[in-house]
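Practice problem: predict the structure.
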Amino acid sequence: MIMNQERLYSQTHEWVSQTNNVATIGLTDFAQKELGDLVFLEANYKVGDDINAKDSVCTIESVKAVSEIYCPVSGKITEINEAVINKPELINSGPYDDGWILKIELSDPGELDELMDETAYEKHIAEQG
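Answer:
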């Protein structure tokens, strides 16, 4: 599994990368593989909305199931990746690249401390298996 030390991970399988005070959020490679082929994604928020950590940011549907994707941190939504709304399969082909879901301006950067680094996330996945 290709991961990155600069990414942080939630227990619900979202990833976060931070540049300055902006966090990019997406679904982990593990989660997209578990869900299978993604066919539909609906955003629950719009640009400019405030969101709290653990709020559902979107509903995603695969050929296997319907799931919620949760925001690991709080802030104001600055960008939603319209490409994944139109082509959710981008998450399958590049969850850490073109498949990111949204960007938010962090309201509490300290929340990042509650997320897992790569090593802890790999252990979390192993414990679920």
